[in-house]
């Protein structure tokens, strides 16, 4: 079994955005999901896992967690496993003049 560490990240808008999709023939472990508030504004974050192998079942991993201005936090209370084609999405509750208030960064371990 080969192990590879990687990351994925993105600024967030107010609609769910796919941050990471587990590659084919791979199992991935999301180690952390850090969210940072930028520009001093506050917003809430929601994050979800889409289980493609189970009729694209959506499971919320974080729902409207407040992120105060100029702070960062990990929205996962533990690690989360994704299998091939499953994906993690996130969104912010607000943006300012079309610009993102929140940025998310995932630390991921992939196993093939």
Task: Please summarize what this structure is.
By secondary structure, this protein is mainly beta. It is built from no helices and eleven strands. The chain is globular, with a radius of gyration of 14 Å.
Secondary structure layout:
Blueprint lengths: L2 E9 L5 E5 L5 E11 L5 E9 L5 E11 L4 E3 L5 E4 L3 E6 L2 E2 L2 E2 L1 E10 L1
Antiparallel strand pairs: 1-11, 2-8, 3-6, 3-7, 3-11, 4-5, 4-8, 9-10
What would you note in describing this structure?
There is one protein chain. With 112 residues, the chain is an all-beta fold. It starts with a strand and ends with a strand. Helix content is 0%, strand content 64%. The protein contains no helices and eleven strands. Strands 1, 3, 6, 7 and 11 form a five-stranded antiparallel β-sheet that branches. Strands 2-8-4-5 form a four-stranded antiparallel β-sheet, with no helix packed on it. A two-stranded antiparallel ribbon has the order 9-10.
């Amino acid at each position: 079994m080969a192990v590879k560490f990687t990351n994925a990240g993105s600024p967030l808008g107010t609609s769910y955005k796919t941050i990471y999709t587990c590659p084919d023939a791979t199992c991935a472990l999301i180690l952390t999901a850090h969210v940072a508030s930028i520009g001093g504004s506050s917003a809430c974050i929601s994050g979800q896992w889409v289980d493609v192998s189970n009729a694209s079942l959506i499971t919320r991993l974080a729902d409207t967690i407040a992120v105060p201005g100029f702070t960062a936090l990990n929205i996962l209370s533990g690690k989360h496993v994704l299998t091939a084609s499953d994906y993690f999405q996130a969104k912010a509750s607000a943006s300012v003049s079309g610009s993102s208030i929140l940025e998310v960064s995932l630390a991921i371990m992939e196993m093939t």
